[in-house]
Design a protein that fits this description.
CATH class of one domain: Mainly Beta
CATH superfamily of one domain: Jelly Rolls
Protein name: homogentisate 1,2-dioxygenase
Strand content: 25-35%
CATH architecture of one domain: Sandwich
EC number: 1.13.11.5
GO cellular component, one term: cytoplasm
GO molecular function: homogentisate 1,2-dioxygenase activity; metal ion binding
Largest sheet: 10 strands, antiparallel
Family: Belongs to the homogentisate dioxygenase family.
Radius of gyration: 24 Å
Number of helices: 3
Shape: globular
Structural class: mainly beta
Number of strands: 29
Length: 458
């Protein structure tokens, strides 16, 4: 190498740069919070520097700043390493510092035990649709947990396997109170109005068109920055959401891990009285404590809440025929049976369709999986159902469903050209601006009393 080349190389080395901090996603106009990115990562976050020890210990004899160290486990101690979920929190006061727990006297419409022996349940062998929940009146202030209504479900949290689908409608923010679900993870999809979620590990702003997952056992509160809000909740028992296997798709496809966002540590110093609402097997309990539950100064682990923009899904297409709906899965939850999921959360985003000499709308179908569909925005057009944004539809296992005769007649005789379908909407089965929850484990969803009354009023 010539002296000139060596000199140039030395200058390049002298002018190189290295990162000094980890990457976080910056605040935006509709979302003022900062996020770590990734799915299943072992995150570390400190609101105050030097909160977390970096010397091979989770539990030093005396934590920095005299904080209390507390672990939250989302899986058993002896589960496989790749399945292990836990988080260590460094907090101002321990979670056990609270008053006695008592049953909560509140007339709610939340269910969790979906058995044929439960008189509140009914297995209905037909398709059902529900409109959006009505916004509570100003005379009935209703916050997030008070506005939850169970529609369908299968299984039982005491058996550690099952799923429940709820709708919610709220018109006020939660005040000095937090909610914690001991039954399972929540996947929340707002349809109208943002959700400003404060969790123990930090804050998330969830916009319509996004989803958020809140793990079981993690306390949170919900504020409504845009006023009244409504949307959907999918709850799973005995499992946790994960990314689906990609198989022949390869290393890139569907939902990319870097598009998932987890909060950074954020803490309050409030010492007023707080109420914590606890859901256990569908029943509500509460306790008071003289301090905020949101006092975690730093944390590290992988059992965290996270959000995802549904429109980021990489939509797949084919040159002929149709792909199965599993090709549009964002998140899945495995059951106890290998190869069978408790549920798959699917979204059908805008995409080019160029399949030639093939039927393009959703085909006529009967399947062993039960399917629940919701709409975020747009116009429904995928079957004989009537469904509007904020509404919900259920096709139980083996129940026939498909397009109307008019839709068949139109699509059977049109000239096929490449087309962008679902543009400007969140789509299911190419043309339906909606999402889908498919339960592979259940033979049928059962409908609760509230859902049966609601559907009879439509």
């Amino acid at each position: 190498m010539s002296p000139a080349a060596l000199t140039a190389s030395s200058q390049l080395l002298a002018e190189s740069f290295s990162a000094t901090t980890g990457y976080t996603r910056a605040p935006a106009q509709e979302d003022p919070y900062r996020y770590q990115v990734g799915f299943g990562n072992g995150f570390v976050s400190e609101a105050v520097p030097d909160t977390i020890p970096y010397d091979g210990r989770n539990l030093p004899q005396r934590a920095n700043y005299d904080l209390y160290i507390e672990q939250l486990n989302g899986t058993s101690f002896v589960t496989s390493r790749e399945s292990m979920l836990n988080v260590w929190m460094h907090r101002i006061r321990p979670s056990c510092a609270h008053k006695p727990i008592n049953p909560l006297e509140y007339n709610h419409d939340i269910s969790a035990v979906f058995s044929s022996k439960n008189p509140k349940n009914s297995f209905v062998l037909c398709s059902k649709e529900w409109g959006p929940l009505a916004t509570p009146s100003e005379m009935e202030p209703t916050n997030f947990w008070q506005g939850m209504k169970t529609i369908v479900g299968h299984g039982d949290p005491t058996q550690k396997e099952g799923v429940a689908v709820h709708q919610y409608a709220a018109n006020v923010s939660m005040d000095e109170e937090a909610f914690v679900n001991h039954d399972g993870d929540y996947l929340v999809v707002p349809q109208q109005g943002r959700l400003d979620i404060q969790a123990e590990l930090g804050r998330l702003m969830v916009i319509p068109g996004e989803l958020v997952v809140i793990p079981a056992g993690l306390r949170f509160k919900v504020a409504l920055p845009d006023g009244p809000s409504r949307g959907y909740i999918q709850e799973i028992f005995g499992s946790h959401f994960e990314l689906p296997d990609l198989g022949p798709i390869g290393s890139n496809g569907l939902a990319l891990p870097q598009d998932f966002e987890a909060p950074v540590a954020s803490y309050d110093l409030e010492t007023m009285t707080w109420e914590v609402i606890v859901k256990v097997v569908g029943k509500l309990y509460s306790y008071e404590q003289p301090h905020t539950p949101f006092d975690v100064v730093g944390w590290h682990g992988n059992y965290v809440p996270y959000k995802y923009k549904i429109g980021n899904l990489l939509a797949l297409t084919s040159s002929k025929d149709q792909l199965d709906p599993s090709a549009y899965t964002i998140l899945t939850a495995k059951s106890k049976i290998p190869g069978v999921s408790i549920t798959d959360f699917c979204a059908f985003t805008p995409k080019w369709v160029n399949s030639l000499n093939s039927w393009r709308p959703p085909y006529y179908h009967r399947t062993m999986t039960a399917e629940v569909m919701g709409m975020i925005y747009g116009v429904y057009g995928g079957s004989a159902k009537t469904l509007e944004p904020g509404g919900l539809a259920c096709d139980n296992a083996y129940v026939p469903h498909g397009e109307t005769y008019e839709a068949w007649k139109k699509n059977a005789f049109i000239d096929l050209e490449p087309a962008m379908l679902g543009d400007g909407a969140l789509s299911k089965y190419q043309v339906l601006p909606s999402f889908a929850d498919e339960s592979s484990r259940s033979s049928s969803f059962c409908l609760v009393t509230f859902a049966l009354i609601l559907s009879s009023d439509l």
